[in-house]
Amino acid sequence: MSLQRLWSRGAIYLVLIAFCLFYLMPFYVMFITGLKPYEDLNVTRMWELPDGIHLDGIKEAWERVAPNFKNTLVITIPAALISSLIGSMNGYIFAKWRFRGSDTIFILFLVGMFLPYQGILIPLVRTLQVFGLYGSQVGLIMVHCIFGIAITALLFRGYYAGIPNELLDAGKIDGCGFFGLYRYVLLPISMPAFAVVLLWQFTSIWNDYLIGLTVLSSPRLAPINVAVQNIAGSWSVEWNVQMSAALIAALPTIVVYLALGKLFMQGLLAGSLKG
Amino acid sequence: MAQGERGRAASPIRVALRRRARWLHGDTALAVLVLLPSIIAVAIFIYGFIVWTGYISTVKWNSSIEDYTSVGLENWRTLFGMERFRWDLRNLVLYAAAFMSQCIIFGFLIAVLLNQKIKGEAIFRTIVIFPFAVSGVVTGVAWRWLMQPTTGINLILQRIGFTNFDFQWNADPTLGILAISLAAGWQFTGYIMALYLAGLRGISDEVREAALVDGASTYRLYRHIIIPLLMPVTFTAVVLTGMGSIRVFDLVMILAGPAFSTDTLAFHMYQATFGQYRWSLGAALGFLMIFLSLFLVVPYMRSMRGEVER
Amino acid sequence: MKGLNRVSWLLVLVLIFSAALAACGGDKEEKVAGNLEIFSWWTSGGEVEALQAVYDIFSEKYPDVTIENAALASGQGQGGNMKALLETRMLGGEPPDSFQVHLGRELIDSHVVADRMEDLDFLYEEEGLYDVFPEDVIAIASYEGKPYSVPVNIHRSNVMWYRPSRLAEVGVTEPPATWDEFFDVAEKLKAAGIPALAIGEQGAAGGFSGHIFENILVSVMGPEKYRGLFDGSTGWDDADVTKSLEILNRAYDYANPDFANTSWGDINDRFVSDDGPAMMIMGDWTHGVLMSLGFKDYHWTVAPGTQGLFMVLSDSFGLPKNAPDRENAIAFLRVIGSKEGQDAFNPIKGSIPARTDGDRSKYDEYLNGAMDAFKTDEGVPSIQHGAAAKQSFLVDYDIALGELSTNHDVAKVQQLLVDAAKAAEFGE
To answer: Is C24 touching A (CB cutoff 8 A)?
Structure first.
């Protein structure tokens, strides 16, 4: 390798490492602060590693947010599952059962996906109240499913579009109708798509803040991110507890991301329709 | 089976009859039926609600008393006359500019570097996208301490020599909103980077080689070939970051600076509606946000139309 | 043709299981007789314990009622998120059994005018509260002649806490009694490098300056004119308002230099630190906080220019219409309004009882002094703590003063206050 090439290769690595430090820095801070005891929380010693692992911050944070953590699981898992199933069915229709106007409908779905929720918050609250769903887990699950219609349909449609029609034709010859094709031909081979969509929906719903805050903000039942903001906004809570709470909230999605990163990427790329 | 396929030589009547036959076919009807609940849900919960919000913005419901007396555009006049609204717009522009630039420039840069066949590419990529996995709230909590003027980033900078550096970050009355965009950029750049990386990978090596054979320098290669080829990705990035800028809420809830300095449309809407019980004013803000988003969404959808009707 | 493979069935099962879990876990519809849901924003040390003391008394009397203490402290301003949640619940016709609310316009303009609260005339009669609460307090609690909530405590807003040792460093032995004196002392302190006034203005609608400002307003205008600000008879464009803004503006020069980054919750830590400010104008809950920090080097006086005045704020509880457990709620209000309840609550909270027959022996030196002052001084309602004006005005007011702390533009900020008053429709 020539010197110049070595130099430019070196520069590339340097720049990348610098960026990585930037992206890891907040995690580092969160992590070490969460593990410090209250006495060690000091503005001048913020960057220093804790001497030993102190779990008081994490214990107290967990005491405060455990009900919220559990509640978020109860909301996120069903919502992710249901919205994935709905998306799968809708994606199937948009990909393989196109009828007049179905493309327009699809575009209208997508437009809805993009719009800021502030534009529908007030009617949403009133409607949920009228149906007795305001402040309930069921209500929140329902809202997440409805808002997930577009993105799940998009992801599944993309996946199913890549399945050759011959496969379906074979099924039709065997006598399958609409449901039969779905159940016997597409569903068995949909697992990769389900994995991607479930993961994406789980992450989106788990990380949600605005909808949870609006629909279900009661202290015990609120989703985890709402609970963390409550702690962060409470003036009398120590840093280490705040950071620990944030860590607890971030843990599931981080674990999911690290373990299933590839699937995550697929969702990420497919979700923007390009690339 | 696709409609709108050009070049089909069939008389209009026959095409229409054929279409009608397909429409009435049992299974297609079933498809429509299955899709119907979703259509109704979207129609009501999104489009219907948007109209409803617009309606609420024209009535007199600005206190705890639910008052639907029509006041026309008065809430809008009030809104546009508010000092706070001027700040919201100013902050939107600054935030969007900073957020977009960060994500696109850094995203592109990192993608280009990662595309250079380097060792450990997967690790680098994982780290850069890592922040995207966590929520806005978690991002805000971590960055709030980084941005504390007495500690955090300032501390590091002071230790390495900039002893007088005491930038107030998100508490700065003028630049606070830019500090928030930094936290947002930290979180979102990975996503844009992934888009660019996929885009770069989609450019075949032959294109590159052809350019090099023609004697193009790396700079010219990028400027005249690669960047133009990646225009669709850039367009997507602009739309996504633009939407993010209009919507930014979670971060502001946690990183808010003094008074109007970091106020945004979304935060103003939430505070007006749920903090001050000015529902109609909040509705006006919400509706305005939808309106602003359309400027991004409509062109994006139009460009999508071609892809969708494949 | 295979049937649905195992994985798909597993998915369906998990789905059903989770949905069932959600349905069972959802406790929204559980209306077991004997519940009591109380909203508050009391989550820190002394506050929670004080409320718990009341709950203990309640539980002794009504052992089979389950108390659900829904406390939420965060959000914009005090209890911002709780108030938002409460408002939405009320709007939907599903109130809690009772909720903490500041006595006065905060309650009246939020829920009473919307016809969502029951008037408590009957309760006041039954419990003899008309005789034990001072007239001023009942007046603040009332709308159209009827009281709508039961005050549990009285806090005083116009208190100035000072550190004798810091003042002594510049040869000052008595705290300033007027704003002119204040600035003289402040100059001396500044020359010695000591911040004169503690301020913690962090956040979008901090409120700390709002607290100080209401005390400046009443010292400049006097009680009559001050009250006029909220019924339209005094305009916010008045020259006295300008003068007050100028005083506040000047005070920022003598504040702790990091005031823009110190939150209200952290200000006490700043006050007690070695290089902390010499004086702080803050309500008398500060007493309890400073004591809990083990701090001894402080004493108190009234805020400059407010001698003979008692700027009142009070936490209270009301009875929403359609409360799910109305009888329990009323029982709770009885406890809250009782001598036993108030004497259990207030010493821990650091406030004085709203009742005039509190057991003096339970209260410390400061609180006894406050109880004396409360009897003799003229009461004026606090803006910052919901007595004088509605919630929406308070937000605008706090933001305006936050603007003052950053741009120091008195004219602009006064215009913001005028606009806020207009939006709040004072006196209309």
So the answer is: no
| Distance to chain C for A124, nearest Cα, Å | 12
Domain extent at residue B27: 12-56
State which fold the C159-305+390-423 domain adopts.
D-Maltodextrin-Binding Protein; domain 2 (3.40.190)
Encode pLDDT of B16-28 as tens digits.
555 555 544 677 8
- Return the residue of C nearest to A231 by Cα: C74
Give the C-alpha separation, A226 to B250, whole Å.
10
Dihedral Cα C217, C219, C220, C225, nearest 10 deg: 70
Residues of chain B in Cβ contact (below 8 Å) with chain C: 62-66, 78, 82-84, 148-150, 168, 171, 173, 256-263, 267, 271, 274-278
3-state secondary structure of C279: strand
Dist CA A102 CA C347 (whole Å): 69
Q: Which pLDDT does position B49 carry in this prediction?
A: 96
Query: What is the C-alpha to C-alpha distance for residues C228 and C239, in angstroms, rounded to an integer?
Result: 14
Q: Which residues of chain A have pLDDT under 70?
A: 1, 235-236, 271-275
Please calculate the CA angle A117-C391-C407 and round it to the nearest 5 degrees.
85
Return the pLDDT at B134.
95
Question: Do B18 and B145 reside in the same domain of the chain?
Answer: no
- Are B66 and C91 inside 8 Å of each other by CB? yes
Residues C371-418 pLDDT 10s? 999 989 988 999 999 999 999 999 999 999 999 999 999 999 999 999
Q: Cα A105 to the chain's mean position, in Å?
A: 25
**Residues B116 and B242 grouped into a single domain:** yes
* CB contacts, 8 Å: C92 with chain A: 125-126, 129, 134
Residue-range domain boundaries for chain C: 35-154+313-381, 159-305+390-423
> Do residues B165 and B289 both lie within one domain?
yes
Q: What is the pLDDT of residues B150-161, one digit of tens each?
A: 888 888 888 888
Q: Is it true that C35-154+313-381 and C159-305+390-423 share their CATH fold? A: yes
Is A147:A224 a contact under the CB 8 Å cutoff? no
Residues of B in contact with A19 (CB under 8 A): 106, 110, 128
Ranges of chain B whose pLDDT falls below 50: 1-7, 23-24
Q: Chain B within 8 Å of A239 (Cβ-Cβ)?
A: yes
- pTM recorded for the entire structure: 0.89
- Report phi then psi at C411, rounded to 5: -60, -45
Q: What is the CA radius of gyration of chain A?
A: 23
Going by their DSSP bridges, the two strands C98-102 and C315-318 should be labelled as antiparallel
In a domain, B76, yes or no: no
User: Which pLDDT score is estimated for C307?
Assistant: 94
Among C406, C408, C417, C425, the strongest candidate for a mutation testing the B interface, having the largest count of B CBs within 10 A, is C406
Same domain? B268 vs B165: yes
Q: What share of chain A is helix, strand, coil (3-state, %, to 5)?
A: 80, 0, 20
Would residue B72 count as lying in a domain? no
**Is B285 an 8 Å CB contact of chain A?**
yes
For B78, which residue in chain C has the nearest alpha carbon? C423
Interface test with C, best of B60, B62, B64 (most C CBs within 10 A): B64
Q: Using CA of residue B114, residue B117, residue B118, residue B119, what is the dihedral sign?
A: positive
Q: Which chains touch A (3 or more CB pairs under 8 A)?
A: B, C
Domain assignment of residue B134, yes or no: yes
Residues (pLDDT < 50) of chain C are 1-4, 25-32
User: Residue C151 is inside which H or E element, if any?
Assistant: strand C149-151
Q: Report domain C35-154+313-381's class.
A: alpha beta
Mark whether B176 and B237 lie in a shared domain: yes
Instruction: Please check whether residues B130 and B42 belong to one and the same domain.
Output: no
Q: What domain count does chain B have? A: 2
- Beta bridge partners, C317, equal C100, C150
